[in-house]
TrEMBL record, chain A:
Belongs to the binding-protein-dependent transport system permease family. It is found in: Cell membrane. It comes from Prosthecomicrobium pneumaticum. One of its GO terms (biological process) is transmembrane transport. It comes from the Bacteria. This is Glycerol transport system permease protein. The keyword Electron transport does not apply. One of its GO terms (cellular component) is plasma membrane.
TrEMBL record, chain B:
The lineage of its organism: Bacteria, Pseudomonadati, Pseudomonadota, Alphaproteobacteria, Hyphomicrobiales. GO terms for cellular component: plasma membrane. It is found in: Cell membrane. The keyword Cell division does not apply. This is Glycerol transport system permease protein. Residues 1-25 are annotated as: Disordered.
Amino acid sequence: MEKSWNNRAWFMVLPVLVLVAFSAVVPLMTVVNYSVQDTFGNNEFFWAGTEWFEELLASDRFWEAMGRNLVFSLVILAIEVPLGIFIALNMPRKGIGVSVCLVLMALPLLVPWNVVGTIWQVFGRVDIGLLGHTLEAIGIDYNYVSDPIDAWITVVLMDVWHWTSLVVLLCYAGLVSIPDAYYQAARIDGASRWAVFRYIQLPKMNRVLLIAVLLRFMDSFMIYTEPFVVTGGGPGNSTTFLSIDLVKMAVGQFDLGPAAAMSLVYFLIILLLSWVFYTVMTNRGVER
Amino acid sequence: MADARDMTADPPARPPLAGGAPTAAATRPAAALRRQRPRGAWLVPTLYILFLLLPIYWLVNMSFKSNQEILGAFSLWPQQPTLRNYMVIFTDPAWYSGYINSIIYVVLNTVISVSVALPAAYAFSRYRFLGDKHLFFWLLTNRMAPPAVFALPFFQLYSAFGLIDTHIAVAIAHCLFNVPLAVWILEGFMSGVPKEIDETAYIDGYSFPRFFLRIFMPLIASGIGVAAFFCFMFSWVELLIARTLTTTDAKPIAATMTRTVSASGLDWGVLAAAGVLTIIPGALVIWFVRNYIAKGFALGRV
Protein backbone atom coordinates (compact mmCIF):
# COMPACT_ATOMS: atom_id res chain seq x y z
CA MET A 1 0.00 0.00 0.00
CA GLU A 2 1.23 3.49 -0.83
CA LYS A 3 1.81 5.27 2.45
CA SER A 4 1.79 9.03 2.59
CA TRP A 5 4.42 11.00 4.49
CA ASN A 6 2.87 12.58 7.54
CA ASN A 7 4.82 13.47 10.63
CA ARG A 8 1.67 14.21 12.57
CA ALA A 9 1.22 10.44 12.78
CA TRP A 10 3.69 10.73 15.64
CA PHE A 11 0.86 11.92 17.86
CA MET A 12 -0.94 8.63 17.38
CA VAL A 13 2.17 6.70 18.34
CA LEU A 14 2.89 8.85 21.35
CA PRO A 15 0.83 6.92 23.96
CA VAL A 16 2.53 3.67 22.99
CA LEU A 17 5.87 5.38 23.11
CA VAL A 18 5.33 6.79 26.59
CA LEU A 19 3.97 3.55 28.00
CA VAL A 20 6.65 1.28 26.59
CA ALA A 21 9.39 3.77 27.39
CA PHE A 22 8.28 3.77 31.01
CA SER A 23 8.31 -0.03 31.08
CA ALA A 24 11.44 -0.56 29.02
CA VAL A 25 13.80 2.39 28.77
CA VAL A 26 13.78 3.41 32.44
CA PRO A 27 14.46 -0.12 33.72
CA LEU A 28 17.09 -0.64 31.07
CA MET A 29 18.86 2.53 32.16
CA THR A 30 18.85 1.22 35.72
CA VAL A 31 20.51 -1.93 34.47
CA VAL A 32 23.14 0.03 32.57
CA ASN A 33 23.74 2.05 35.70
CA TYR A 34 24.33 -0.98 37.89
CA SER A 35 26.52 -2.70 35.33
CA VAL A 36 29.23 -0.09 35.64
CA GLN A 37 29.09 0.46 39.40
CA ASP A 38 30.01 -1.39 42.54
CA THR A 39 28.48 -1.16 46.00
CA PHE A 40 29.19 -2.19 49.55
CA GLY A 41 25.58 -1.68 50.56
CA ASN A 42 24.06 1.41 52.18
CA ASN A 43 23.11 2.63 48.73
CA GLU A 44 26.64 3.88 48.13
CA PHE A 45 27.78 3.27 44.63
CA PHE A 46 31.08 3.97 42.93
CA TRP A 47 32.36 3.62 39.41
CA ALA A 48 33.56 0.18 38.44
CA GLY A 49 34.01 0.62 34.72
CA THR A 50 33.91 -2.53 32.67
CA GLU A 51 34.95 -4.70 35.60
CA TRP A 52 31.70 -6.64 35.73
CA PHE A 53 31.70 -7.29 32.03
CA GLU A 54 35.26 -8.59 32.11
CA GLU A 55 34.43 -10.77 35.08
CA LEU A 56 31.30 -12.06 33.41
CA LEU A 57 32.92 -12.90 30.12
CA ALA A 58 35.72 -14.69 31.95
CA SER A 59 33.45 -16.68 34.25
CA ASP A 60 32.73 -20.33 33.63
CA ARG A 61 29.32 -20.00 35.20
CA PHE A 62 28.09 -17.66 32.47
CA TRP A 63 29.47 -19.68 29.58
CA GLU A 64 28.13 -22.91 31.04
CA ALA A 65 24.63 -21.44 31.34
CA MET A 66 24.97 -20.03 27.83
CA GLY A 67 26.13 -23.40 26.52
CA ARG A 68 23.26 -25.24 28.19
CA ASN A 69 20.84 -22.72 26.77
CA LEU A 70 22.22 -23.06 23.25
CA VAL A 71 22.15 -26.85 23.41
CA PHE A 72 18.61 -26.72 24.72
CA SER A 73 17.47 -24.36 21.96
CA LEU A 74 19.09 -26.47 19.24
CA VAL A 75 17.69 -29.72 20.61
CA ILE A 76 14.14 -28.45 20.79
CA LEU A 77 14.43 -26.89 17.31
CA ALA A 78 15.73 -30.19 15.94
CA ILE A 79 12.72 -31.98 17.43
CA GLU A 80 9.93 -29.45 17.15
CA VAL A 81 10.44 -28.23 13.59
CA PRO A 82 10.48 -31.58 11.74
CA LEU A 83 7.74 -32.91 14.01
CA GLY A 84 5.66 -29.79 13.45
CA ILE A 85 6.01 -30.03 9.67
CA PHE A 86 5.13 -33.71 9.74
CA ILE A 87 1.99 -33.13 11.78
CA ALA A 88 0.93 -30.13 9.69
CA LEU A 89 1.24 -32.21 6.51
CA ASN A 90 -1.10 -34.79 7.98
CA MET A 91 -3.69 -32.39 9.34
CA PRO A 92 -7.19 -32.61 7.95
CA ARG A 93 -7.97 -29.82 5.51
CA LYS A 94 -11.72 -29.61 5.59
CA GLY A 95 -14.74 -29.89 7.81
CA ILE A 96 -15.15 -29.79 11.54
CA GLY A 97 -11.94 -31.78 12.00
CA VAL A 98 -9.87 -28.72 11.15
CA SER A 99 -11.37 -26.59 13.91
CA VAL A 100 -11.23 -29.40 16.46
CA CYS A 101 -7.57 -30.07 15.63
CA LEU A 102 -6.67 -26.38 15.78
CA VAL A 103 -8.38 -25.84 19.12
CA LEU A 104 -7.02 -28.97 20.80
CA MET A 105 -3.52 -28.39 19.48
CA ALA A 106 -3.50 -24.80 20.66
CA LEU A 107 -4.51 -25.82 24.17
CA PRO A 108 -0.96 -26.24 25.58
CA LEU A 109 -0.07 -22.79 24.24
CA LEU A 110 -2.69 -21.22 26.52
CA VAL A 111 -1.69 -22.95 29.74
CA PRO A 112 0.06 -20.57 32.17
CA TRP A 113 3.76 -21.31 32.06
CA ASN A 114 4.08 -22.25 35.68
CA VAL A 115 1.13 -24.62 35.33
CA VAL A 116 2.96 -26.22 32.39
CA GLY A 117 5.75 -26.78 34.86
CA THR A 118 3.36 -28.13 37.47
CA ILE A 119 1.72 -30.47 34.97
CA TRP A 120 5.04 -32.02 34.03
CA GLN A 121 6.35 -32.01 37.56
CA VAL A 122 3.37 -34.13 38.55
CA PHE A 123 3.26 -36.17 35.35
CA GLY A 124 6.89 -37.22 35.62
CA ARG A 125 6.95 -38.18 39.30
CA VAL A 126 7.58 -41.83 39.92
CA ASP A 127 5.18 -42.11 42.85
CA ILE A 128 2.14 -40.23 41.54
CA GLY A 129 2.76 -39.36 37.88
CA LEU A 130 1.50 -41.32 34.92
CA LEU A 131 4.75 -41.00 32.97
CA GLY A 132 7.10 -41.74 35.86
CA HIS A 133 4.95 -44.57 37.14
CA THR A 134 4.59 -46.20 33.73
CA LEU A 135 8.32 -45.98 33.05
CA GLU A 136 9.05 -47.53 36.39
CA ALA A 137 6.51 -50.28 35.77
CA ILE A 138 8.21 -51.30 32.53
CA GLY A 139 11.55 -51.32 34.29
CA ILE A 140 13.15 -48.05 33.18
CA ASP A 141 15.02 -46.22 35.88
CA TYR A 142 13.75 -42.67 35.66
CA ASN A 143 14.00 -39.89 38.20
CA TYR A 144 14.17 -36.31 37.03
CA VAL A 145 14.86 -35.00 40.51
CA SER A 146 18.22 -36.69 40.92
CA ASP A 147 19.42 -37.66 37.46
CA PRO A 148 20.60 -34.81 35.18
CA ILE A 149 19.88 -36.73 31.99
CA ASP A 150 16.34 -37.54 33.09
CA ALA A 151 15.89 -33.91 34.09
CA TRP A 152 16.95 -32.83 30.61
CA ILE A 153 14.65 -35.36 28.94
CA THR A 154 11.75 -34.09 31.05
CA VAL A 155 12.45 -30.43 30.28
CA VAL A 156 12.86 -31.10 26.55
CA LEU A 157 9.75 -33.25 26.44
CA MET A 158 7.86 -30.55 28.28
CA ASP A 159 8.94 -27.93 25.76
CA VAL A 160 7.99 -30.20 22.87
CA TRP A 161 4.59 -30.65 24.50
CA HIS A 162 4.23 -26.94 25.09
CA TRP A 163 5.42 -25.40 21.82
CA THR A 164 5.35 -27.91 18.95
CA SER A 165 1.79 -26.78 18.26
CA LEU A 166 3.09 -23.34 17.36
CA VAL A 167 5.18 -24.85 14.56
CA VAL A 168 2.21 -26.98 13.47
CA LEU A 169 -0.13 -23.98 13.34
CA LEU A 170 2.32 -21.83 11.39
CA CYS A 171 3.13 -24.61 8.91
CA TYR A 172 -0.52 -25.39 8.48
CA ALA A 173 -1.15 -21.72 7.76
CA GLY A 174 1.53 -21.89 5.08
CA LEU A 175 0.21 -25.11 3.59
CA VAL A 176 -3.40 -24.08 3.07
CA SER A 177 -2.27 -20.98 1.20
CA ILE A 178 -0.77 -23.03 -1.63
CA PRO A 179 -2.97 -22.61 -4.73
CA ASP A 180 -4.52 -25.69 -6.27
CA ALA A 181 -2.79 -25.06 -9.62
CA TYR A 182 0.52 -26.16 -8.13
CA TYR A 183 -0.86 -29.56 -7.23
CA GLN A 184 -2.56 -29.98 -10.58
CA ALA A 185 0.71 -29.23 -12.34
CA ALA A 186 2.47 -31.73 -10.12
CA ARG A 187 -0.14 -34.37 -10.92
CA ILE A 188 0.24 -33.83 -14.66
CA ASP A 189 4.00 -34.24 -14.28
CA GLY A 190 3.42 -37.39 -12.27
CA ALA A 191 5.39 -36.06 -9.32
CA SER A 192 5.88 -38.34 -6.34
CA ARG A 193 4.63 -37.37 -2.91
CA TRP A 194 8.18 -36.61 -1.84
CA ALA A 195 8.72 -34.38 -4.88
CA VAL A 196 5.52 -32.49 -4.09
CA PHE A 197 6.77 -31.91 -0.57
CA ARG A 198 10.30 -31.02 -1.60
CA TYR A 199 9.54 -28.73 -4.52
CA ILE A 200 6.10 -27.30 -3.74
CA GLN A 201 5.16 -27.52 -0.08
CA LEU A 202 8.55 -26.88 1.52
CA PRO A 203 9.41 -23.79 -0.59
CA LYS A 204 5.93 -22.43 0.04
CA MET A 205 6.31 -22.98 3.77
CA ASN A 206 9.68 -21.26 3.72
CA ARG A 207 8.56 -18.02 5.26
CA VAL A 208 6.33 -19.41 8.01
CA LEU A 209 9.05 -21.90 8.86
CA LEU A 210 11.52 -19.07 9.23
CA ILE A 211 9.11 -17.28 11.56
CA ALA A 212 8.62 -20.50 13.52
CA VAL A 213 12.35 -21.16 13.86
CA LEU A 214 13.12 -17.61 14.93
CA LEU A 215 10.26 -17.43 17.42
CA ARG A 216 11.07 -20.79 18.90
CA PHE A 217 14.76 -19.96 19.12
CA MET A 218 14.19 -16.63 20.83
CA ASP A 219 11.55 -17.90 23.21
CA SER A 220 13.54 -20.97 24.17
CA PHE A 221 16.56 -18.75 24.68
CA MET A 222 14.76 -16.88 27.43
CA ILE A 223 12.89 -19.81 28.96
CA TYR A 224 12.49 -19.44 32.70
CA THR A 225 9.27 -20.46 34.38
CA GLU A 226 8.75 -24.00 33.10
CA PRO A 227 12.16 -25.51 33.96
CA PHE A 228 12.23 -23.44 37.15
CA VAL A 229 9.04 -25.07 38.38
CA VAL A 230 10.01 -28.59 37.33
CA THR A 231 13.67 -28.78 38.27
CA GLY A 232 14.52 -25.44 39.85
CA GLY A 233 17.68 -25.47 37.73
CA GLY A 234 18.86 -28.75 39.17
CA PRO A 235 19.94 -31.36 39.86
CA GLY A 236 23.13 -29.43 40.54
CA ASN A 237 23.25 -26.84 37.81
CA SER A 238 22.31 -29.19 34.99
CA THR A 239 19.19 -27.32 33.90
CA THR A 240 20.22 -23.82 34.94
CA PHE A 241 19.58 -21.79 31.81
CA LEU A 242 20.52 -18.15 31.32
CA SER A 243 17.31 -16.70 32.74
CA ILE A 244 17.33 -18.95 35.77
CA ASP A 245 20.95 -18.07 36.46
CA LEU A 246 20.21 -14.38 36.03
CA VAL A 247 17.27 -14.37 38.42
CA LYS A 248 19.28 -16.37 40.92
CA MET A 249 22.02 -13.79 40.74
CA ALA A 250 19.82 -10.71 40.80
CA VAL A 251 17.03 -11.62 43.19
CA GLY A 252 18.56 -14.49 45.13
CA GLN A 253 22.09 -13.24 45.78
CA PHE A 254 21.45 -9.57 45.07
CA ASP A 255 24.69 -9.27 43.09
CA LEU A 256 23.51 -6.16 41.28
CA GLY A 257 26.63 -5.44 39.26
CA PRO A 258 27.24 -8.89 37.77
CA ALA A 259 23.53 -9.43 37.24
CA ALA A 260 23.19 -6.13 35.41
CA ALA A 261 26.19 -6.87 33.22
CA MET A 262 24.74 -10.26 32.40
CA SER A 263 21.36 -8.69 31.63
CA LEU A 264 22.95 -6.37 29.11
CA VAL A 265 24.94 -9.07 27.36
CA TYR A 266 21.83 -11.24 27.31
CA PHE A 267 19.75 -8.38 25.95
CA LEU A 268 22.26 -7.60 23.21
CA ILE A 269 22.09 -11.19 21.98
CA ILE A 270 18.29 -10.98 21.87
CA LEU A 271 18.53 -7.62 20.11
CA LEU A 272 20.66 -9.15 17.38
CA LEU A 273 18.16 -11.99 16.94
CA SER A 274 15.26 -9.54 16.89
CA TRP A 275 17.01 -7.61 14.15
CA VAL A 276 17.25 -10.76 12.05
CA PHE A 277 13.57 -11.45 12.73
CA TYR A 278 12.59 -7.89 11.83
CA THR A 279 14.59 -7.90 8.60
CA VAL A 280 13.00 -11.17 7.58
CA MET A 281 9.50 -9.93 8.39
CA THR A 282 9.69 -6.54 6.73
CA ASN A 283 11.38 -7.77 3.57
CA ARG A 284 8.45 -10.02 2.89
CA GLY A 285 6.77 -7.71 0.42
CA VAL A 286 10.02 -7.11 -1.45
CA GLU A 287 10.71 -10.77 -2.07
CA ARG A 288 7.43 -11.51 -3.74
CA MET B 1 -15.22 -13.57 13.64
CA ALA B 2 -16.43 -17.12 13.92
CA ASP B 3 -16.78 -17.61 10.19
CA ALA B 4 -14.56 -20.23 8.67
CA ARG B 5 -12.38 -17.78 6.86
CA ASP B 6 -9.13 -19.02 5.51
CA MET B 7 -6.69 -18.36 8.34
CA THR B 8 -3.73 -17.93 6.10
CA ALA B 9 -4.71 -15.26 3.63
CA ASP B 10 -2.05 -12.60 3.70
CA PRO B 11 -3.10 -9.37 5.34
CA PRO B 12 -3.01 -7.40 2.06
CA ALA B 13 -4.87 -10.15 0.22
CA ARG B 14 -7.58 -10.63 2.80
CA PRO B 15 -10.62 -8.46 2.12
CA PRO B 16 -11.97 -7.87 5.62
CA LEU B 17 -15.17 -6.59 4.07
CA ALA B 18 -16.02 -9.94 2.57
CA GLY B 19 -16.53 -11.75 5.84
CA GLY B 20 -18.92 -14.45 4.75
CA ALA B 21 -18.85 -17.91 3.33
CA PRO B 22 -15.45 -19.12 2.20
CA THR B 23 -15.01 -18.51 -1.50
CA ALA B 24 -14.54 -21.27 -4.02
CA ALA B 25 -10.90 -20.30 -4.36
CA ALA B 26 -10.38 -20.87 -0.68
CA THR B 27 -11.87 -24.33 -0.62
CA ARG B 28 -10.33 -25.74 -3.78
CA PRO B 29 -6.75 -26.02 -2.52
CA ALA B 30 -8.12 -27.95 0.39
CA ALA B 31 -9.59 -30.54 -1.93
CA ALA B 32 -6.34 -30.90 -3.82
CA LEU B 33 -4.35 -31.09 -0.64
CA ARG B 34 -6.54 -33.81 0.67
CA ARG B 35 -5.53 -35.91 -2.28
CA GLN B 36 -1.93 -35.28 -1.27
CA ARG B 37 -2.44 -36.85 2.12
CA PRO B 38 -1.78 -40.56 2.40
CA ARG B 39 -4.41 -42.95 3.72
CA GLY B 40 -4.35 -43.12 7.49
CA ALA B 41 -3.04 -39.58 7.80
CA TRP B 42 -5.62 -38.89 10.49
CA LEU B 43 -3.57 -41.13 12.78
CA VAL B 44 -0.76 -38.57 13.09
CA PRO B 45 -2.76 -35.63 14.45
CA THR B 46 -4.79 -38.01 16.59
CA LEU B 47 -1.70 -39.44 18.26
CA TYR B 48 -0.26 -35.97 18.67
CA ILE B 49 -3.43 -34.65 20.30
CA LEU B 50 -3.45 -37.68 22.57
CA PHE B 51 0.09 -36.81 23.63
CA LEU B 52 -1.03 -33.25 24.31
CA LEU B 53 -4.09 -34.21 26.31
CA LEU B 54 -2.54 -36.95 28.43
CA PRO B 55 -0.67 -34.69 30.89
CA ILE B 56 -3.69 -32.39 31.12
CA TYR B 57 -5.93 -35.37 31.77
CA TRP B 58 -3.60 -36.45 34.53
CA LEU B 59 -3.91 -33.07 36.21
CA VAL B 60 -7.72 -33.18 35.96
CA ASN B 61 -7.67 -36.72 37.26
CA MET B 62 -5.62 -35.70 40.28
CA SER B 63 -7.80 -32.70 41.01
CA PHE B 64 -10.73 -35.02 41.75
CA LYS B 65 -8.79 -37.25 44.12
CA SER B 66 -8.08 -36.88 47.80
CA ASN B 67 -4.46 -36.65 48.86
CA GLN B 68 -4.53 -40.12 50.37
CA GLU B 69 -5.72 -41.52 47.10
CA ILE B 70 -3.11 -39.60 45.08
CA LEU B 71 -0.25 -40.81 47.25
CA GLY B 72 -1.70 -44.16 48.21
CA ALA B 73 -3.06 -46.06 45.26
CA PHE B 74 -2.13 -45.53 41.63
CA SER B 75 -5.25 -45.36 39.46
CA LEU B 76 -6.06 -44.05 36.02
CA TRP B 77 -9.25 -42.41 37.18
CA PRO B 78 -10.52 -41.25 40.58
CA GLN B 79 -11.86 -44.22 42.56
CA GLN B 80 -13.62 -41.99 45.08
CA PRO B 81 -14.18 -38.75 43.19
CA THR B 82 -14.21 -35.76 45.51
CA LEU B 83 -14.81 -32.06 45.06
CA ARG B 84 -12.90 -31.26 48.23
CA ASN B 85 -9.94 -29.72 46.35
CA TYR B 86 -12.16 -27.33 44.48
CA MET B 87 -14.05 -26.52 47.67
CA VAL B 88 -10.77 -25.52 49.32
CA ILE B 89 -10.04 -23.09 46.51
CA PHE B 90 -13.51 -21.56 46.40
CA THR B 91 -13.77 -21.11 50.16
CA ASP B 92 -10.25 -20.00 51.11
CA PRO B 93 -9.72 -16.28 50.34
CA ALA B 94 -5.97 -16.84 49.98
CA TRP B 95 -6.80 -19.03 46.99
CA TYR B 96 -9.70 -17.42 45.25
CA SER B 97 -8.36 -13.90 45.70
CA GLY B 98 -5.42 -15.06 43.59
CA TYR B 99 -7.81 -15.62 40.70
CA ILE B 100 -9.49 -12.28 41.27
CA ASN B 101 -6.12 -10.51 41.34
CA SER B 102 -5.00 -12.21 38.15
CA ILE B 103 -8.21 -11.35 36.36
CA ILE B 104 -8.09 -7.71 37.49
CA TYR B 105 -4.59 -7.00 36.24
CA VAL B 106 -5.03 -9.06 33.08
CA VAL B 107 -8.19 -7.18 32.12
CA LEU B 108 -6.59 -3.84 33.00
CA ASN B 109 -3.61 -4.72 30.88
CA THR B 110 -5.73 -5.84 27.92
CA VAL B 111 -7.77 -2.63 27.96
CA ILE B 112 -4.68 -0.42 28.22
CA SER B 113 -2.71 -2.34 25.60
CA VAL B 114 -5.42 -2.43 22.97
CA SER B 115 -6.53 1.15 23.44
CA VAL B 116 -3.05 2.63 23.04
CA ALA B 117 -2.14 0.20 20.28
CA LEU B 118 -5.13 1.09 18.08
CA PRO B 119 -4.04 4.62 17.04
CA ALA B 120 -0.39 3.57 16.84
CA ALA B 121 -1.17 0.63 14.57
CA TYR B 122 -3.25 2.92 12.37
CA ALA B 123 -0.33 5.35 12.08
CA PHE B 124 2.07 2.53 11.15
CA SER B 125 -0.28 1.05 8.58
CA ARG B 126 -1.27 4.34 6.89
CA TYR B 127 1.58 6.80 7.17
CA ARG B 128 5.30 7.13 6.84
CA PHE B 129 6.90 9.40 9.39
CA LEU B 130 10.26 10.28 10.82
CA GLY B 131 11.82 7.19 12.38
CA ASP B 132 8.82 4.94 11.82
CA LYS B 133 10.86 1.86 10.96
CA HIS B 134 13.21 2.27 13.89
CA LEU B 135 10.25 2.69 16.19
CA PHE B 136 8.59 -0.43 14.86
CA PHE B 137 11.78 -2.40 15.37
CA TRP B 138 12.24 -1.02 18.87
CA LEU B 139 8.74 -2.19 19.76
CA LEU B 140 9.60 -5.67 18.56
CA THR B 141 12.73 -5.85 20.72
CA ASN B 142 10.54 -5.31 23.77
CA ARG B 143 8.33 -8.25 22.85
CA MET B 144 11.49 -10.35 22.57
CA ALA B 145 13.17 -9.06 25.73
CA PRO B 146 13.75 -11.72 28.39
CA PRO B 147 11.53 -10.88 31.39
CA ALA B 148 14.36 -11.99 33.66
CA VAL B 149 16.34 -8.95 32.57
CA PHE B 150 13.57 -6.65 33.77
CA ALA B 151 12.63 -8.34 37.02
CA LEU B 152 15.01 -6.47 39.30
CA PRO B 153 14.80 -2.97 37.73
CA PHE B 154 11.01 -3.29 37.62
CA PHE B 155 10.95 -3.99 41.31
CA GLN B 156 12.99 -0.87 42.04
CA LEU B 157 11.14 1.33 39.58
CA TYR B 158 7.74 0.42 40.95
CA SER B 159 8.97 0.68 44.53
CA ALA B 160 10.08 4.22 43.80
CA PHE B 161 6.54 5.04 42.65
CA GLY B 162 5.00 3.20 45.58
CA LEU B 163 3.18 0.87 43.21
CA ILE B 164 4.46 -2.44 44.52
CA ASP B 165 1.68 -4.92 45.23
CA THR B 166 -0.94 -3.08 43.18
CA HIS B 167 -2.83 -4.40 40.19
CA ILE B 168 -1.95 -1.42 38.05
CA ALA B 169 1.77 -2.08 38.51
CA VAL B 170 1.51 -5.55 37.00
CA ALA B 171 -0.82 -4.29 34.28
CA ILE B 172 1.63 -1.59 33.23
CA ALA B 173 4.63 -3.89 33.49
CA HIS B 174 2.95 -6.41 31.20
CA CYS B 175 2.48 -3.64 28.64
CA LEU B 176 6.17 -4.11 27.98
CA PHE B 177 5.46 -7.11 25.78
CA ASN B 178 1.71 -6.80 25.17
CA VAL B 179 1.64 -3.33 23.62
CA PRO B 180 4.17 -4.27 20.93
CA LEU B 181 2.25 -7.48 20.33
CA ALA B 182 -1.04 -5.62 19.95
CA VAL B 183 0.52 -3.03 17.64
CA TRP B 184 1.99 -5.73 15.39
CA ILE B 185 -1.21 -7.76 15.22
CA LEU B 186 -3.46 -4.75 14.63
CA GLU B 187 -1.10 -3.33 12.01
CA GLY B 188 -1.40 -6.61 10.10
CA PHE B 189 -5.18 -6.45 10.14
CA MET B 190 -5.33 -2.74 9.32
CA SER B 191 -3.05 -3.08 6.33
CA GLY B 192 -5.66 -5.40 4.89
CA VAL B 193 -8.23 -2.58 4.76
CA PRO B 194 -7.89 -0.65 1.50
CA LYS B 195 -6.93 2.97 1.92
CA GLU B 196 -9.73 4.01 -0.44
CA ILE B 197 -12.15 3.43 2.44
CA ASP B 198 -10.44 6.12 4.51
CA GLU B 199 -10.38 8.53 1.61
CA THR B 200 -14.02 7.96 0.70
CA ALA B 201 -15.03 8.56 4.30
CA TYR B 202 -13.12 11.85 4.44
CA ILE B 203 -14.71 13.00 1.17
CA ASP B 204 -18.08 12.15 2.67
CA GLY B 205 -17.28 14.59 5.44
CA TYR B 206 -16.36 12.24 8.28
CA SER B 207 -13.99 13.66 10.86
CA PHE B 208 -11.11 11.40 11.84
CA PRO B 209 -12.41 10.28 15.26
CA ARG B 210 -15.86 9.62 13.84
CA PHE B 211 -14.44 7.72 10.89
CA PHE B 212 -12.21 5.69 13.18
CA LEU B 213 -14.95 4.74 15.62
CA ARG B 214 -17.88 4.35 13.25
CA ILE B 215 -16.33 2.91 10.10
CA PHE B 216 -12.81 1.70 10.69
CA MET B 217 -13.12 -0.11 14.00
CA PRO B 218 -16.06 -2.27 12.89
CA LEU B 219 -14.01 -3.24 9.83
CA ILE B 220 -11.16 -4.57 11.93
CA ALA B 221 -13.37 -5.89 14.73
CA SER B 222 -11.91 -9.38 14.38
CA GLY B 223 -8.42 -7.92 14.57
CA ILE B 224 -9.27 -6.14 17.80
CA GLY B 225 -10.72 -9.36 19.18
CA VAL B 226 -7.59 -11.29 18.28
CA ALA B 227 -5.27 -8.63 19.70
CA ALA B 228 -7.28 -8.51 22.92
CA PHE B 229 -7.24 -12.29 23.18
CA PHE B 230 -3.47 -12.47 22.81
CA CYS B 231 -2.89 -9.64 25.30
CA PHE B 232 -5.17 -11.42 27.74
CA MET B 233 -3.37 -14.68 27.18
CA PHE B 234 0.22 -13.48 27.43
CA SER B 235 -0.59 -11.51 30.56
CA TRP B 236 -2.36 -14.54 32.02
CA VAL B 237 0.48 -16.98 31.41
CA GLU B 238 3.27 -14.68 32.62
CA LEU B 239 4.51 -15.31 36.13
CA LEU B 240 8.03 -13.97 36.64
CA ILE B 241 7.20 -10.25 36.50
CA ALA B 242 3.82 -10.62 38.16
CA ARG B 243 5.40 -12.46 41.07
CA THR B 244 8.23 -9.96 41.41
CA LEU B 245 5.88 -6.99 41.65
CA THR B 246 3.39 -8.39 44.12
CA THR B 247 3.49 -9.61 47.69
CA THR B 248 0.00 -10.15 49.08
CA ASP B 249 -2.75 -7.81 47.92
CA ALA B 250 -2.32 -8.31 44.21
CA LYS B 251 -0.64 -11.69 44.18
CA PRO B 252 -1.59 -13.67 41.06
CA ILE B 253 -2.94 -17.19 41.25
CA ALA B 254 0.18 -18.48 39.56
CA ALA B 255 2.28 -17.23 42.45
CA THR B 256 -0.14 -18.61 45.03
CA MET B 257 0.32 -22.00 43.43
CA THR B 258 4.03 -22.02 44.09
CA ARG B 259 3.37 -21.89 47.82
CA THR B 260 1.18 -24.87 48.47
CA VAL B 261 3.82 -26.49 50.64
CA SER B 262 2.48 -26.84 54.15
CA ALA B 263 3.53 -28.69 57.28
CA SER B 264 2.00 -31.91 56.02
CA GLY B 265 3.86 -31.72 52.73
CA LEU B 266 2.60 -30.67 49.33
CA ASP B 267 -1.16 -30.56 48.90
CA TRP B 268 -1.20 -32.22 45.48
CA GLY B 269 -4.95 -32.30 45.08
CA VAL B 270 -5.42 -28.57 45.64
CA LEU B 271 -2.42 -27.81 43.43
CA ALA B 272 -3.95 -29.85 40.62
CA ALA B 273 -7.36 -28.23 41.05
CA ALA B 274 -5.78 -24.76 40.97
CA GLY B 275 -3.94 -25.71 37.80
CA VAL B 276 -7.11 -26.96 36.12
CA LEU B 277 -8.88 -23.71 36.97
CA THR B 278 -6.11 -21.64 35.34
CA ILE B 279 -6.45 -23.56 32.08
CA ILE B 280 -10.20 -22.96 31.81
CA PRO B 281 -10.24 -19.27 30.72
CA GLY B 282 -7.95 -19.94 27.75
CA ALA B 283 -9.79 -23.10 26.80
CA LEU B 284 -13.13 -21.28 26.83
CA VAL B 285 -12.29 -18.48 24.40
CA ILE B 286 -9.87 -20.30 22.12
CA TRP B 287 -12.72 -21.43 19.86
CA PHE B 288 -13.38 -17.85 18.80
CA VAL B 289 -9.85 -17.15 17.65
CA ARG B 290 -9.02 -20.58 16.24
CA ASN B 291 -8.55 -19.26 12.70
CA TYR B 292 -6.17 -16.55 13.83
CA ILE B 293 -4.05 -18.44 16.34
CA ALA B 294 -1.08 -18.76 14.01
CA LYS B 295 -1.34 -15.09 13.11
CA GLY B 296 -1.40 -14.01 16.73
CA PHE B 297 1.57 -16.08 17.81
CA ALA B 298 3.61 -14.87 14.84
CA LEU B 299 2.90 -11.22 15.74
CA GLY B 300 0.42 -10.82 12.91
CA ARG B 301 3.02 -11.74 10.33
CA VAL B 302 1.54 -14.89 8.83
